[in-house]
Each structure stands twice: as C-alpha cells, then as structure tokens.
Write a structure and sequence with these properties.
alpha+beta; eight-stranded antiparallel beta sheet; 8 helices; about 25% strand
Length: about 300
C-alpha cells in the first residue's frame, strides 16, 4: 500500500495529498488514454538525493503523449521541475515518482478532443519491487498465456495507461500460479518482456535482449544496462529470443525502474543455469547499484539533484 505523504503536484499547483482528486467522468478513467512514467530517486553516499535519468523519463513521457495525440499544457522543463519540487515538498530522501498526463472530464465517448489535458506528479516511498530476496537469490517466472501487444494493434513504445491491462492479467496469472513474475511472448511467439520489465539472456558470456523493433517498451534501465555492458566489455546482441533460449540460458535477468536489476533463477519449473544468480548478472547489478547510490560517479550526467 502507498504510504500517504503531504503534497501532490496537480496542474501546476502543490496541493494537499487528500485533495488530489478527479471527477468520476475523467475521460482517461473510462477509455485508458493517459501517459505516465515511473522514476526513482536515490540517496547517494554523501547524503544528497538525486533523481535517476529524469530527462530521459520526461522525454519518453512526452513521446507517449505524442503517440496518443495528447498535448500537455506544461513543458518538459516544468514537469521535470515539478518532479524535483514534489520530492522536496514531501521530504523524501529516496522515492518513486509518477508523472501522469491524462484527459479530464467533459465530453464522453471515444472522441473528446476538447476535454482538458491534465498533469500530475505523485511521489511515494517504494522499496525493492519484487522483494529484497529477489535481488540476491533471483525469482521464479512463468511464460504467460497473455501475449504482449502486436505493434500494429497497440503502441509498444508508449507508456500508456490503458495498454497495461494485459500486463495486469499476466501478473495476476503468474502470482495465482505460485510464481513471482510473468514473461510475455509477442504474437509471433518470441520473447517480449515481463509484465513491467525488459529481459536479458546470458549465454556463453554474451548478452541477448529483444531488439527495439520487437513489441517492447524502450526501457531506460534497459538502455543503462546496455551501456554498462559495453563499458564492461560484455558482448551484446539485440535480436529475437525464443522460449527455449530462455530455458537453456546460463543466466536471465529483468531490468526496469521498479525492478532495477533482478535475476531470474527459474522459468516454467526449469532452473536457469545452476539455479543461482550468475556472474554477469551480479556484475551488472553491482555496477548499476554503485552508480545509482553514488559510489561510482562515472555517470553523474544521469542524475538530477533534489
């Protein structure tokens, strides 16, 4: 459950948490046209707070708005500053940020071009998404019966609210079956991503991950890990991945703002490698956390200080 804090930024104003409400006829609630981001802020070793890759997240938010023909009435810079200010107003040293752009109330029906486009930023305390043990020991996954969207049916590169219906169903299916997370295939049967994470496979010392022409979100943590892998001299290929390649992998791990870098130890009751977290997963996970915690300062351009 999200712990109640003090303030939420809504349409340019910082308002009390309990006053951040919308009308029941809010268009996005009925028809699913809204764009959002998930962003993390980390406390560095020197005690300062920094938002990770804020600029890239805001760029993707506006890209999602462009795809669904929503024109925010605030600029990228205003939304970015709202993220910083909402962290400050709530006194968080670390936290999760959720900028959201949505269509407000007015006309109903699928075509409502004159309804107001609204914007908000919410922050809250959020620890390890899949649990602390997940980072250390890895998680158990199930190939979902729910497919990821076809690229001509939905907008795979958009972080759009209504598109997460099948992710919710895939996650529920996995949890009800006793697993930690789902892995979704695309309509052609190739590996796509988790319910909210990108996926990487390690085989014979090299990384393989679905390419951007696949039905995947262009993950910001994904891009971070690709860059770190190159810096570490780890070979990497972006291309199609099959279900049996997952089963026969030496290592598998998820990446995402919420999931960070989470190893996968089992898929469909088959252990991955020897069933423990592998060396390349550990290596990239360690480098990632050194950077976001500020012990490795090689990429300070990725941070916005609160």
């Amino acid at each position: 459950m999200v712990e109640k804090l003090k303030k939420i930024w809504l349409d340019g104003e910082m308002i009390d948490w309990d006053d951040a409400t919308v009308h029941i006829l809010t268009h996005s609630l009925h028809y699913g046209i809204g764009a959002f981001e998930g962003i993390r802020a980390y406390k560095h070793k020197d005690g300062t707070t920094h938002i990770f890759r804020l600029k890239e997240h805001i760029e993707r938010l506006f890209d999602s708005c462009k795809m669904v023909l929503m024109q925010p009435k605030f600029t990228r810079e205003q939304i970015a500053q709202a993220c910083v200010e909402t962290m400050r107003q709530n006194g968080l040293a670390e936290g999760y940020l959720r900028p959201l752009v949505f269509v407000g109330d007015g006309a109903m029906g699928v075509y409502a071009p004159d309804n107001p486009v609204r914007a908000s930023v919410i922050v809250w305390k959020w620890g390890t998404y899949l649990g602390e043990d997940a980072l250390q020991k890895g998680i158990r996954c199930k190939i979902s019966s729910f497919a990821r969207h076809h690229v001509n049916v939905s907008l795979a590169k958009g972080k759009i609210t209504g598109q997460y219906t099948n992710s919710v169903l895939a996650k529920r299916e996995a949890k009800l079956s006793g697993y930690d997370e789902a892995i979704m295939l695309d309509p052609q049967g190739y590996v796509s991503e988790g319910s909210g994470e990108n996926i990487f496979v390690v085989k014979r010392g090299a990384l393989l991950t679905p390419d951007l022409s696949s039905s995947i979100l262009e993950g910001i943590t994904r891009e971070t890990i690709i860059q770190l892998a190159r810096e570490e001299g780890i070979p990497l290929v972006e291309g199609r991945v099959t279900r049996d390649q997952l089963w026969l992998a030496d290592e598998v791990f998820f990446t995402g703002t919420a999931a960070e870098v989470t190893p996968v130890r089992e898929i469909d009751n088959r252990p991955i490698g020897d069933g423990t977290v592998g060396p390349i997963s550990k290596r990239l996970q360690s480098r990632f956390f050194e950077i976001v915690r500020g012990t490795d300062r090689s990429h300070m351009e990725w941070f916005t200080r609160v």
